[in-house]
Every structure is written in C-alpha cells, then in structure tokens.
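Q: Hi! First time doing this. I have a protein sequence and I read that you can turn it into a structure. Is that right? Here it is:
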Amino acid sequence: MEKLEKPLETWRAELSDEQFQVCRLGATERPFTGQYNDTRTPGIYHCVCCDEPLFDSDAKFSSGCGWPSYFQPVSERAIASVDDFSHGMHRIEVKCSRCDAHLGHVFPDGPAPTGLRYCINSASLTHKPRDV
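A: Yes, that's right. Below is the predicted 3D structure, encoded as structure tokens:
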C-alpha cells in the first residue's frame, strides 16, 4: 500500500472542521452524536481522508459506547496500531494505514470471534453501501 502524505494545510482545506480535528489532530467526537453510531446499512466504511476501505458493516455491532464499533477491520493491513498514553492511561490508538488518519481506539472487550472493540469516530469514516 502506497502511503498518502499531505501537508496539514492541504488536509484542512479538504476536510470539514470536525473531520480535520478528529483525523489530523487526534480529537474525539462527542459520544452518541456521530452519523454512523446507530446505522445498519450494509456496506464498507472507508477512511474519509484517503478512501481506503477500513471496516465492513458485517463486523459492526452495538457496544453502547456512543461510537460506531467493529470487531475487526476489513484486513490486518487496513489499520495501524499505536500506543497511546494520553489521559493518564494506556490505550491503543488505531489509524488508517494509508494516510495515518486518527480513527479511534481498540479495546479488548468486544464480541467473538476477535474479542476486540474498535471504537471509531464517525467523522473519520464515509460509508459506501453494498450493491444488493
């Protein structure tokens, strides 16, 4: 996968303010406010910055945490994991492997088969419905 790199000024011009704050500066949208928190439309969720496929709706589940949750990405190479020691705790940040957009965090309290919960900001995603 070829890395996509752009200056912050370019990202700022291409993204909405919320998308820029979340994806490029590592912010988090307020819980229960994201457009994909409660959606059930079949399809693939892509990175809003580079259009890389990240999560399949078949892996989406209701975690009750306030953000869209998935038990696995579309592939192991779709996301990168980074240790995050902010907020006085250790968490695992997940980023888009192609453009390094901040997506959210992964936690070890999800359902089978992975036992993982990828807690992702809606602002970092765009949904493409599956052809029926």
